[in-house]
Structure formats: C-alpha cells, structure tokens
Amino acid sequence: MSHILQSDVVRYACTCGSLKPLSRIYFCRHCLKIRCGYCVSHEVDSHYCANCLENLPSAEARLKKQRCASCFDCPSCLHTLSTKASTVVVPSSDEKTVTRKLYYLACGFCRWTSRDIGYPDQTVASGGWPEKENPHASRIYNLLEHFKTLALREKQEREKKKKFIPRRNIYHLSGLSAAMARKRAGLPSIGPSSLKDDVGGPAELIPSAATEEVEQLPEEIFTDTLNLLKVTTLKQRLAQPEFQPQTVDELYPAHKCLLIKRSQRCRSCEHNVSKPEYNPGSIKFKIQLSAHYHVPEIRIVTCEPLRAGEKSEMIIKICNPTQYQSSLQFSPLPSPEEEAEELSKEIEERKQKVDRKDEKTNREDVLLLLPSICRQVSITEDPRPVNVALTGDISLPPVTLVLPPRDDAAEYDDSGDTHNFQDDPKIVVWRKANKAAMKLVITPEEDISEGRDVIVGFVMHYTYINTMATQLLEQREPQKVNLKVKLYITVGKVVGK
Amino acid sequence: MPLYEGIGLGTEKQPVVIDIGTAYTKFGFAGETGPRCIISTEVMCQESGRIKKIFSYSNEEELYSLLVEFIHNLYFRHLLVSPKDRRVVIVESLLCPSVFRDTLAKVLFRHFEVSSVLFVPSHLVALCTLGVSTALVLDVGYQEAVLIPVYEGVPVLHAWQAQPLASQAVESNLRRRLAGPEEGELSPHSRISESTIEDIKVRTCFVTSFERAHKITAGQPDPPPPSVSYQADGSSTVDVPGSARETAYEILFEQDGDEMSVSTMVLDAILKCPVDMRKELAENILLMGGTTMATGFKARLMSELKYLVTTPKYAKHLAIKVFKVHKPPAKENYVAWLGGSIFGGTDVIVTRSLSKEAYLKENRIPDWANLMYNCREDDNKSANL
Ligand SMILES: [Zn+2]
Ligand SMILES: [Zn+2]
Ligand SMILES: [Zn+2]
Ligand SMILES: [Zn+2]
C-alpha cells in the first residue's frame, strides 16, 4: 500500500477543484463525477459512546445533551474514568460481619478518583453519581420565558398592523419594553386582560439589580504560597464551561461526549456516496462509493534523477479497478481559458438542476403546509479552479492503453497473460492482468532551483461502464461513457548537476 | 434506518448559537443554560500540520477555507448535529470587520446550507442575561476592550470606546516580566509557548489592589507576593516571580502616555453620553469577556473609578459618585453567548433571521452596523446629541 506513506504523490482533481489522493475521493455513480469530503454534504447518522459502544438515536442523544449516561471523563486529565470496586466489612446487627462491594470512579492515567472530591462510594456499579446542575438554571429559564412572551407579542403586533412600522422593535426586546417603562412612570402594569391579544403580559421577571459590592481580592494572596497543584489549568476549566472550577476540589466528573457516525451525500443528485452501518461496533459501510473502485489508479514505479531543464524517464503503473475493460488516453491539461469555460459549464449545469428542482417543489400550497418536508433548493458552492503551480513538463504518448477488467483470480496466476494487446514495447513496458506500466518523459523547468518539487499534470481519459443506468432504465446493454480526470503528480525533488 | 431529528410537523431543529471570539469560540444550542464547548478559535492546517488562528487570515479566500474547516469541526466533533437546514445565531461584535461577517454568512449558507442566520451584536444581547434595558457594557476579551453604552435597548454608538487593553496585552506584558529587563529577547523565557504563558497568567497572576498599585508606581512597593515555580511541559520549569504575578495585569490600568486605561474608558464613555443618561449607566455596568474573570479585576476597577471621579480631569464634568455592577447568571467569558442563547430561544429567530432564500436573492447580508433603520426616531435624536 503505497498510499500510507505517499498519500499526496499522485493527486486527483475533484469536480469542486480540491486536489486529493485517490484514497480520499468518492465517485458518484449517479452523476458519474468525482466528489470529495469538501464538496459532499455531511450528515450525522447516529450517536454512540466510544467507551461502552452504546448507540443512541439522535432524538435521545439530544435529550442527554449528546453525552453518554453511564460513562464519565476524568475532570483532571480528560481521559475516560473506570469504575473500581472495593470491598468493605460492614458490621451487622446480629454480631456477624458482612462484606459488601462499594464502587468509585478512578482514572487510570492520572490517578484521580471520585473520593478526591468527597463523592461517597456507590453500592451499584453504574449510575447513582450526583449530577451537578448549573446554579443559575432557574434564573435563565425565567429570562427565557420572559423573552419568549415578549417575542411572541411582538410577532402578533406585527401581524396585526403590518402597514405600520412597529414602534417597539427587537432591540427593545433586549430591554423590558413597555411593561418596564410603565412601571417606571408609576403607571399600573397592564394585566393580560387589558391586552387584546391572547399571549398575556410577559412572565413575571425581576430585572437584575446591580450592586456596589464586588468580590474583593483576598488579603492572603500577598502572603500565602501558591500551590499550583491545587489550581486547575485553563484546559480543565474550559472542559466544563458552565462551572469553570478554579480549584481541583471542585473538579467533578463529566459525562462522556458521544461520537457520531456520519453519512456523506452528493449534493448534486442527493444520493449517498458513503453511509456507515448503524451498529457502532461495525466498521463496514452500507454504501461506500470510493473512487478507488471506479477510477483507474496511477502510481509511480521509478523515476530517473530530476535535473533542471533535462529529460528524465518516469515509469508509472496504471490499474483498472472495475469489472469492465477500460481504454485510457492521455492529454495535456487544459489552458486557463479552457478551464474557465469548463467551470462555467459545470456551474451552468448545476443551475439547471436547481431550477428543475425548483419547479418540482414550487407548489405554494405544499410549501406553506409542509415547509419541512419539501427539500430546500440546494445552493452549493461553485467549483473553484485547481490551484497548483506546475514546475515541469510531461510528454504524453499518443497511445490508447486498453486495460482488462479486474479479475481477482488472475492475481494468483503466474502462467503469463493470455491477452493479446498490440502495445508499443517502448511505451508500455510491462503488463499483468488489469495493470500496465507505462514510460513517460519528464522535463523539469529550466530555472527551477535545487530541492524544489517537480509537479507535472495531465488529463486521463478513460471509458467507464455505467451499470446504474442499466438498472434504472432497464436497458439490456450497460452504457459505455467517456470520462476524464485531471491528475497532478509530485514526481520528486530536483537534484544538482 | 435513517433516524432523523424532529420528525413530524412543528418540531424545529434546535438552533445553534456561535460566538466566535479572537481567542476562544463559544458555541452550543439556543435555549440552553450554557455553551456546550469553549475552544480555541484555530484549526490544524492539513498540509503543514501547524495550528492556524482563524483571525490570522490574510485574504478572503483564506478566511473562507479556514472557516469551513473550523465550523465543520464545531458541528461534527463538538455539537454532533448536521448543519444543513438548521438555524444559526451568530453573536458578533459591533466592530466585527464586514469581510468577516460576509465570509461567515457565505460559508454558512453556501457550504453548510444552514436554513437561516441571525446576527446579534454581543453588547446588546448580553442584556438579555440581566433583563434590563440600560447598561454600560464593557467587554474585555483577547485583542481589545470594547465598551458600548446601551440605553433603553439602543446602543449609544457615538460613545463607544475600544482600546487594545485586553488579554493579549497582559500576556505580552507577562512575557516581558518573566524574561527580566536585562535578558531581553535572548532569554529562554522568550521561547515559552503562547498557551503556557496563558496558563501561567490564568493560574498565578491576579489584579492587585488599588493601594498597592499606587505604591508600586510611586516606587515604594509593598513586599511582593510569594513567587511560584511553574512546571512547563513536564521538563522545564519557569520561575514566576511575585512581582510578575502582581503586575502582569497592570498594563490594563496604567495611564501612561495617552492616559488611556480600562477605567478611563468607562468614564470617557459616560462623559460622551447625554447628561440624563449618565447616572443610570454608571449604576448599570456589565463586565464581560474572559479577562474580567481575573482575580481582583472587578474590585480594582471599582476603586479606580471611585478614585478617578475625584481627580480634576473628571470631577469638573462628572457628578457621579456611585458605580454599580451587574452579576449575570453566567461566567463572564460566555455572557454574550448566553444572551444569544436566550434571544435565539424565542420566536425572534423566526421573525428576524436572514433566510437562505433571502440571502440567495440579495447575495449579501444587510449591513447592520448601520443601526439607523432599527432605531425609533426619538432614539436617533438622542443618539446624535
Ligand atoms: Zn470535491
Ligand atoms: Zn458510554
Ligand atoms: Zn485522569
Ligand atoms: Zn451525485
């Protein structure tokens, strides 16, 4: 697997303009286009806990604030805590002693335990630990209720007199608006009855009162030595945003954050290009349209030392991963003008797609009744031009290279190839099953300095058998299409003369 | 089996509230009592493997890709929900550069396909955490201290104050003090990482009392607090002298040269407001931003204010004797976020958000630093006094 070590030697240009190695791109079988992590739509599929592997549907995860109910993180070093058991002898009434198991939480990395903060040991192995609540929670809910009422009233007022500019607008919401002004003026506050709406007055809220009293600097700060082991680090504080404990005795264990399984969707046809299996224990995918299975792979076999302005031979190996024969051709990269034209064509194509989608969903009655059901217009980003500076020239042989389909059995067959291809032995230097090696000539730029990378690029045209269309349109014959992809190869560094 | 959130009609997906600060980003869900996470506003560069701060962008294009990467992480590593077709509340500073908000809107709408964005100014929504409509809001963050008085729900924009008197100034001051005057650039301490300096600041430094600070400037300091030896990265030790612990924050209160300090910002802002607002503003101060959490900060600011109003510079113009501060139901570093969470938890998110459709039609966001269209006529008059 050359990918592990040289992942960015051969990079493929995605339709969106990103450059990625083959192992990091997808091939949408519906659009017949290359997609990558940047240009697909990511979606959260399911939540699971990395420690106990329990999985939760999204709605339940939301209720639990995307945290695991039974696993905890160490508040000191943020690793996962484990439950430890200890046996204690409990004297019982009839002069016999009974041993009982008690449980506490302990960190295997930093030796923090729940006893450090005075949590009593639990008699059950899981659960039962005290939950810390935000001390301001009830005040915040009061404020929330209050502003909800105000916002609702503003909405109703607006609807009632749409022609007038509302006198009280949203920035008065951040204040107390009418009710407060009346109180100040000494007028009786308006009750729900006198308001001709059905919301009623804002919920009773006591505005915050400012004081002259502030927390004073403790005198002993000037005399007592500071024990840093007792003061929490910034990282520990920010790990618990609502509490931000300053001393270590206030570090309470936090429920472990869940992780997600994510599916990826082609933005243009809304089919999945990657969808994992639901079970958190499984590393398999239900759908995985990796380009590795659809787009011919190119690897460098060898390359002569590269010298500025001089020709060197490079041998690349090309592999056809599909079940069908594929013929390949190579051409130079398009000029900037041609590329701009291609980009605008791509953008135009997308626009048309959006318009078509628009027509479908543009029934007003449906939109009004079921706004959440109608898919919204997809307005994806426009593709960008590939941003890479070439530092070498590549001469491409005008041949058509035919690669047989992949045959797993042939991998173990050493008896030689039965295929009979009319290859030019000067260009195609080696062949085996669905792979072939080809000789190319590279010329680094004249003025390239020693140690710089030589980057060359070309377009690979290949035939692809579209099996999706066969299924959909019930055609007998699989459809043969001509596809192309831009490739950028970082051949190596320039050596001295 | 796909398990979608909020199946059925009427159940809206919980909106997300994001407050992107220069140093830290606070984010979570609208209507919740605290942010889910507070993380550094930075991303790991995929090619070089180096940490890159979002605000170190050199052009719009770079900012765009930094924000895509950063926000992707927010949603999929921390919030764990899909951004698509979900509402967003952005808590932003009134002084936020327009290239930043335009690019942020573009990233959210075009890349993440969110259904709507509501931009709320941090100084205004912070009042939602108090339930009052008038306050002098001082936000001391990483790069700047920004003060905006808000009167009856309307920002008194011409009285705003901004000074680079914040965390960054404190940290470079601390670094200088750790290096010592004679060692200069070559000392080993000049190579301490930024995060270590920050941690030293948070754990060992404090804002000293008004009396002691005066003695220090007069050249007759009281004995300094005990020094601390700080274990950095497990191997090297940094000696933090008591004097550095005590004086790191002094840069915020010193009035050398231009005579600007955090305390004079408060008084200068009050002076710029109409006379009938002044008393109410002085008695409704809201302090927010991580730097105001430093031990002793509030006590010092109060005594500074009480002293400064008696000095000739202010005594002539200001008849104020009493200053009062609010205690919001949150830690100071996420007060603005909580304001956004409360504000975004109401129907306002439906009536006031910029929808995806509207954004696509206009292809830009209404400029909202221009608050004129939001103000009542009489407010405009008073704001222009
Ligand atoms: Zn892409
Ligand atoms: Zn778990
Ligand atoms: Zn630990
Ligand atoms: Zn597709």
What characteristics describe this protein?
heterodimer, A: 497 residues, alpha+beta, 6-stranded antiparallel β-sheet, 5-stranded antiparallel β-sheet, 22 strands, elongated, B: 385 residues, Nucleotidyltransferase, domain 5, 3 domains, 15 helices, 15 strands, disordered N terminus, disordered C terminus, binds zinc ion
Distance between the termini of chain A: 33 Å
Low-pLDDT runs of 5+ residues of chain A are 164-200, 361-377
The number of distinct structural domains of chain B comes to 3
Number of helices of chain B: 15
Pattern of helices and strands of chain B? EEEEEHEHEHEEEEHHHEEHHHEHHHHEHH
Overall 3D shape of chain A: elongated
Mean pLDDT of chain B: 87
What profile does the largest beta sheet of chain A have?
Answer: 6 strands, antiparallel
Query: What structural class should be given to the helix and strand makeup of chain A?
Result: alpha+beta
Instruction: Give the N-to-C terminal Cα separation of chain B.
Output: 63 Å
For the record, the CATH architecture of the largest domain in chain B stands as 2-Layer Sandwich
Q: What's the helical proportion of residues of chain B? A: 25-40%
How many helices of chain A does DSSP assign?
A: 9
> What is the CATH first-level class name of the largest domain in chain B?
Alpha Beta
Query: Can you tell me the residue ranges of chain B where pLDDT is under 50 for at least 5 consecutive residues?
Result: 1-10, 369-385
CATH fold group of the largest domain in chain B: Nucleotidyltransferase, domain 5
Strand content of chain A: 25-35%
Family (chain B): Belongs to the actin family.
Biased composition (Polar residues) (chain B): 228-238
Region (Disordered) (chain B): 216-239
Pfam family, one (chain B): Actin
